[in-house]
Design goal:
- The complex is a heterodimer.
- Chain A is α+β, with helices and mostly antiparallel strands.
- Among the domains of chain A are: about 5-185 and about 360-390, Nucleotidyltransferase, domain 5 (2-Layer Sandwich); about 395-500, Substrate Binding Domain Of DNAk, Chain A, domain 1.
- Chain A has 11 helices and 28 strands.
- The longest helix of chain A has 25 residues, at about 300-320.
- Chain B has 19 helices and 3 strands.
- Chain B has a 3-stranded antiparallel sheet with strand order 2-1-3.
- By secondary structure, chain B is an all-alpha fold.
- The longest helix of chain B is centred in the middle third of the chain and has 39 residues, at about 185-225.
- Chain B has helices spanning about 20-30, 35-45, 50-60, 70-80, 85-90, 90-105, 110-115, 120-135, 150-165, 170-185, 185-225, 230-240, 245-280, 280-295, 300-310, 320-330, 335-350, 350-365, 370-375, and strands at about 10-15, 35, 65.
- Chain B folds into 4 domains: about 1-65; about 70-185, Orthogonal Bundle (Helix Hairpins); about 195-245; about 280-375, Tetratricopeptide repeat domain (Serine Threonine Protein Phosphatase 5, Tetratricopeptide repeat), CATH 1.25.40.10.
- Classes of the chains: A alpha+beta, B mainly alpha.
C-alpha cells in the first residue's frame, strides 16, 4: 500500500495540498472541485468549528468569531510590532497568552494560534483521506523562507496538534523551485519571487540536475496581498468619509463587506481595466440607509500600491547582492503566489530581472506540488533530490553590553552548527543564562528573541574556570537545537530551554487530545456545499 | 550506486575469502601492503573505468581494504558496528571514509576537505562540493537510526559546507593559500603576535569603553532624529563621561540642552499645576520655581510662583514674588493674569493703591476679564 506524503502549502489566505502518485504530483481536490481551501476558521457558540469555504462565506455576519490570516500571528510575540498592527486591522479579538504569545478570543475562550492552524491542517487531512480512500499521516508543510525559528516551530506544532507526522518544514520558494526543476536535469540559476496573501519571499537558487542549492534568500513576513487589500479599503473609507462624514470602519459588518469587495475588485482589475464596488445598504447614519458605489480603475490601485511593489523589488536587489549575482545572470524567474497575477507586479519583476517570468509554474499550486515531491524523496531509499537550503536570519547570542555575537551567519547552508565556549563571571556561580537572538541588528534587543537557556549544575569553581562548550545546531527544518558539554569533565551539561512563545508540553498534549477526540466523535467536518457561480 | 574511490586513499591487501578472476588477482597482487589508488590505477594496463570496476569488486569481496591511520578504538568500533543495524545501513567502507574525512576536517584545510588540488578551478570546486554533499547529506539517511553516526555525519556535512564557503571563488582561494603559506613559515611571527595580543587584552576595557561611548553617541543621534530629546541628552552625557577626549559628544549634549530644558520645564510646570489643584501649595511653589529656572521664558511658571507665594502668605518672599511677577508681566504683554497676581501681591503687602493700579492694567489688557472687575470692586 502506497505510503502517501502530503505536501501542504499552508498559506495566509489559501491552503493547497498535493501528493505524488508514482512519478507525477497531483493536487487533491475537494467536493465541489475546489483545488485550494481558504485558511479561515470560524467558531460556533457551542464550540464546534467551521473551516474553509464555508467559514469564509459567513465571515461577514460573524466577523468577531471568524479567524483569518492566522499565519500573520503564528510564532510571534504578543508585543511584536506585527501583532500589534494586526490587532488594529482585524475584527476578531487578539489577547495575550500565558507565554507572552498572542491568542484569539472567541466566545469567551482563548485559543493559541497553533490551534487555529491545526484546525486548517485537520481539514486538509480529511480532504486528503477522502480523495485517496486511505488514512494519511505523513506531511511536509511549507513556510515562508524568511520565517524565524519561533514561527517554524509553531507551524510544526500545529501539524503535530492536527495529528500529522511532519517530516519536514520546507521553504516555499525552494518548494516552488522543486516543482519547476524536478526530473528535468536542468543546469540553471533561478529566482523565485513569492508574493502571497501575507508574506513576501525571494530566493535565488542554483539547480544542477537533481541538486537544488539555495544561494540566498530574503523577504518580509508582513507584506502580502492583504496589505494591497488594506490600501484599497482605506481609500474607500476615506472617500466615504469625505462624502458622508462617517467612518465606515466603526461598523464591523460594513468593514467586513468592504474588505471582501476590495479583494474582489483587486482580483478583477488584474483582468479588466475598470471595475465597480457596489454595496447597497452598507450602513445606516441617523436612521438613513446609505449605499456605497465607487468606480475603481487599474491605474488608481496601481498608484495606491506601487510603493508596496517597490519594497519587494528592493528586497530582490539585496538577495541578488548576497548571492553575488547580477540580475542578468539569472536564467529563469518563477512567480509564485496569487498576488503575482497583478499586472503591476509582473511588469516590475520583468523590468528588474530583464526577462519574462516562466509560465509553466502554477502560482497557487507549485509550492504544494514541490512539497509533496520532497516528501516522497525523503522516504525513498536513495533520495533522488538533494536540497541545500539556507537559514534566512543570523543566529547569535547576547553578550555583555547588549550586543549580538553572531554564531551562524544568515544564508548558511543547513543543517549546520557552531560552537561557543561559555564560562562563569563570579566565584561559585552554578548557572549561566544565555539569550539567543535571530536577526541582523547589532544590539541584541533589536533582534528577534529566540529563547533563553540556562546552563545549570555547573560544578563550583572560581570565576572563569568552567569551560562549557555549547553547540548550536540548526536542523534541516531551520529550527534550532542546543546541546552543551562541560569541557573539563567531557560530560553532557544540563540545559533548560525556554523559548520565546512556544506552547508548553502540557498544552500541546491537551490540544492534540482535543483534536483527536473531535474527529473520533463522528465528523464535525461540515460538507462543502456546491460552488458559487 | 557505484563506489566512489578517493584517489589519494591507500589500500592494502587482505587474504581473499572468495576466488578471484585472473584480472582481479593481478590487481590484488599489486596492492600488497599499501599502495595509493592513483598509483595502482597507473599500474593497471586496462582503461580507468575497468580498473575501477575491478577495484570495486575486490572491495566488495573484502580482499582489499582502505588503509586507515585511525586509532585502534575506532577500528574496534567499526568492527562492532559490522553486525548491528548501523552496519546494515552504512557499509564498512562508508563508515571508514566518514572517520577519515572527519580527521581531515580537523586540519582545517578546505582543499583537503574537498579533495581538491590547489590549482582547482571554480567548476572543479563546485563539482566536488556537490558530489560530497550528495554522499554525506543527512537526508540520504532520513529517519534511519544511525546511532552516533548521525552526529558524525552532521559534523562532516557542516565541515564540507564551511570549506566550500572558503574556496568558492578565485579570490577566496588565493586568500586561503596565502594564509596557509603564512602559517607554515611564520611561526615566529605568530609567537610575537600572540604576545602582542595578550598585551592588548589588558587594554581591552579601555577599547570597550570607547566602543560603548561611540555606540551611545549613535543611539543619541537616533533619538535626536526621532525628537526624543530626553533620551538623546542622556546618551550624549554618558558618552561624554565614558570618553572625555572626543569633543563632539560634549558638543552634541550642549546643543540639545536647551530643548531638554524646555521639556523638563514643561514637565515641572505640569507637576506644579497638579499640585496646586490638589491643594499642596508648597509643592507647587517648588516645582514652579524649578520650572522657571530651567526655562526663563516660561512665564506661566513665574506667575504660578508669585501666586503660590501670596497664597502661602510668605512675607519674606514677597520681594521674590515681585521680581517673578514683574518679569512675567513684561514677558506676557497681552495677558491680564500677571497683573492680577501682582495686584494680589500688592494687596498682601498692604499697598492698595498699587494693587488697584495693577488691576486696572489687567482690565486694560483684557476688558472682559471678570476677576479684575471683581477685585476692583472690593
Amino acid at each position: 500500500m502506497a505510503d502517501y506524503v502530503l505536501g501542504i502549502d499552508l498559506g495566509t489566505t489559501y491552503t493547497c495540498v498535493s501528493i505524488v502518485e508514482g512519478e507525477t504530483p497531483r493536487v487533491l481536490e475537494q467536493k465541489g472541485g475546489y483545488r485550494t481551501l481558504p485558511s479561515v476558521v470560524a467558531f460556533n457558540p457551542d464550540g464546534s468549528t467551521m473551516v474553509g469555504h464555508i467559514a469564509k462565506r459567513q465571515a461577514v455576519t460573524n466577523a468577531e468569531n471568524t479567524i483569518y490570516a492566522a499565519k500573520r500571528l503564528i510564532g510571534r510575540g504578543f508585543d511584536s510590532p506585527e501583532v500589534q498592527k494586526a490587532i488594529q486591522l482585524v475584527p476578531y479579538k487578539i489577547v495575550q497568552g500565558p507565554n507572552r504569545d498572542p491568542r484569539v478570543r472567541v466566545h469567551r475562550k482563548n485559543h493559541p494560534i497553533q490551534e487555529i492552524s491545526a484546525l486548517v491542517l485537520k481539514q486538509v487531512r480529511a480532504i486528503a483521506e477522502e480523495a485517496l480512500h486511505c488514512p494519511v499521516e505523513k506531511a511536509v508543510i511549507t513556510v515562508p523562507a524568511y520565517f524565524s525559528d519561533g514561527q517554524r516551530q509553531a507551524t510544526k506544532d500545529a501539524g503535530s496538534i492536527a495529528g500529522l507526522d511532519v517530516l519536514r518544514i520546507v521553504n516555499e520558494p525552494t518548494a516552488a523551485a522543486l516543482a519547476f526543476g524536478y526530473n528535468k536535469r536542468l543546469d540553471k540559476k533561478i529566482a523565485v519571487y513569492d508574493l502571497g496573501g501575507g508574506t513576501f519571499d525571494i530566493s535565488i537558487l542554483d539547480i544542477s540536475k537533481d541538486t537544488f542549492e539555495v544561494l540566498s534568500t530574503a523577504g518580509n513576513t508582513f507584506l502580502g496581498g492583504e496589505d494591497f487589500d488594506i490600501r484599497i479599503l482605506e481609500f474607500i473609507i476615506q472617500s466615504f468619509q469625505t462624502e458622508h462624514g462617517f467612518n465606515l470602519s466603526q461598523d464591523k459588518m460594513a468593514l467586513q463587506r468592504l474588505k471582501d469587495a476590495a479583494e474582489t475588485a483587486k482580483c478583477q482589475l488584474s483582468g479588466r481595466l475598470e471595475t465597480e464596488i457596489n454595496l447597497p445598504f452598507v450602513t445606516t447614519i441617523e436612521n438613513e440607509s446609505k449605499h456605497l458605489k465607487y468606480k475603481l480603475n487599474r491605474q488608481e490601485i496601481e498608484s495606491m500600491t506601487e510603493d508596496l511593489v517597490d519594497q519587494t523589488i528592493k528586497i530582490c536587489q539585496s538577495a541578488l547582492e548576497m548571492a553575488a549575482l547580477k540580475a542578468n545572470e539569472i536564467d529563469d524567474v518563477l512567480l509564485v503566489g496569487g498576488m503575482t497575477r497583478m499586472p503591476l507586479v509582473q511588469q516590475k519583476v520583468q523590468e528588474f530581472f530583464g526577462k519574462i517570468p516562466a509560465k509553466n509554474v502554477h502560482p497557487d499550486e507549485a509550492v504544494a506540488i514541490g512539497a509533496s515531491l520532497l516528501g516522497q524523496s525523503l522516504l525513498e531509499e536513495e533520495a533522488p533530490i538533494l536540497l541545500l537550503d539556507v537559514t534566512p536570519l543570523s543566529l547569535g547570542v547576547r553578550t555583555a553590553g547588549g550586543y549580538t555575537s553572531i554564531l551562524i551567519p544568515k544564508n548558511s547552508t543547513i543543517p549546520t552548527s557552531a560552537t561557543h565556549v561559555f564560562t562563569t563571571v563570579t566565584d561559585g556561580q552554578q548557572s549561566v543564562k544565555i539569550q539567543i537572538v535571530q536577526g541582523k541588528n547589532k544590539l541584541a534587543s533589536e533582534n528577534q528573541p529566540l529563547g533563553e537557556f540556562t546552563l545549570t549544575d555547573i560544578p563550583e569553581a572560581s570565576a572563569g574556570t568552567p569551560q562549557i562548550e555549547v553547540t548550536f545546531s540548526i536542523d534541516s527544518n531551520g529550527i534550532l537545537e542546543v546541546a552543551a558539554k562541560d569541557l573539563n569533565t567531557q560530560r553532557e551539561q544540563s540545559i533548560i530551554v525556554t523559548a520565546a512563545s512556544y506552547l508548553s508540553e502540557d498544552e500541546m498534549i491537551q490540544l492534540s487530545e482535543a483534536t483527536k477526540q473531535e474527529s473520533e466523535a463522528g465528523d464535525a467536518i461540515v460538507d462543502e456545499i456546491a460552488p458559487l457561480p | 550506486m557505484s563506489v566512489v574511490i578517493d584517489p589519494d586513499a591507500k589500500l592494502f591487501a587482505k587474504d581473499p575469502q572468495a576466488s578471484l578472476s585472473s584480472e582481479e588477482s593481478f590487481v590484488w597482487s599489486r596492492v600488497g601492503s599499501g599502495i595509493r589508488v592513483q598509483d595502482l590505477l597507473a599500474l593497471c594496463p586496462w582503461p580507468k573505468e575497468q580498473s575501477l570496476q575491478l577495484l570495486e569488486e575486490l572491495l566488495k569481496k573484502a580482499c582489499i581494504e582502505y588503509q586507515t591511520d585511525l586509532p585502534p578504538e575506532i577500528l574496534k568500533q567499526l568492527e562492532k558496528d559490522e553486525t548491528n543495524n548501523i552496519g546494515k545501513i552504512l557499509d564498512r567502507n562508508f563508515r571508514t571514509e566518514v572517520w577519515q574525512r572527519l580527521k581531515k576536517a580537523k586540519s582545517d584545510n578546505p582543499f583537503e576537505i574537498l579533495d581538491l588540488k590547489v590549482t582547482a578551478t571554480d567548476h572543479e570546486v563546485k563539482q566536488n562540493y556537490l558530489g560530497l554533499s550528495r554522499r554525506f547529506h543527512p537526508d540520504r539517511f532520513f529517519r534511519k537510526d544511525l546511532g552516533e553516526y548521525k552526529k558524525l555525519l552532521n559534523q562532516l556535512f557542516t565541515s564540507i559546507q564551511k570549506a566550500y564557503e572558503k574556496v568558492k571563488n578565485t579570490y577566496d582561494r588565493e586568500a586561503v593559500l596565502r594564509m596557509m603559506k603564512a602559517k607554515k613559515s611564520d611561526c615566529k611571527k605568530i609567537a610575537t603576535n600572540l604576545a602582542k595580543e595578550s598585551k592588548q587584552k589588558k587594554l581591552d576595557p579601555e577599547l570597550e569603553k570607547i566602543g560603548r561611548a561611540e555606540q551611545l553617541f549613535q543611539d543619541g543621534l537616533k533619538a535626536q532624529d526621532q525628537q526624543n530629546y530626553l533620551d538623546a541628552s542622556q546618551c550624549f552625557l554618558r558618552a561624554a563621561q565614558l570618553n572625555s577626549d572626543k569633543e563632539i559628544y560634549q558638543q552634541s549634549y550642549e546643543k540639545i540642552r536647551p530643548y531638554v530644558e524646555k521639556i523638563k520645564s514643561k514637565d515641572l510646570l505640569k507637576k506644579a499645576e497638579e499640585a496646586q489643584h490638589a491643594g499642596s501649595h508648597e509643592e507647587a511653589l517648588v516645582y514652579a520655581e524649578q520650572a522657571f529656572r530651567c526655562d526663563s521664558q516660561l512665564f506661566k511658571a513665574a506667575i504660578l510662583v508669585g501666586q503660590t507665594i501670596v497664597n502661602l502668605k510668605l512675607d519674606d518672599r514677597y520681594p521674590d514674588a515681585l521680581e517673578f511677577l514683574r518679569r512675567a508681566k513684561a514677558g506676557m504683554a497681552k495677558d491680564p493674569n500677571p497683573c492680577i497676581q501682582l495686584g494680589r501681591l500688592y494687596q498682601a503687602m498692604k499697598e492698595t493703591s498699587k494693587a488697584k493700579a495693577e488691576w486696572n492694567e489687567a482690565l486694560r489688557r483684557d476688558p472682559k476679564n471678570p476677576r479684575a472687575e471683581k477685585l476692583l470692586s472690593k
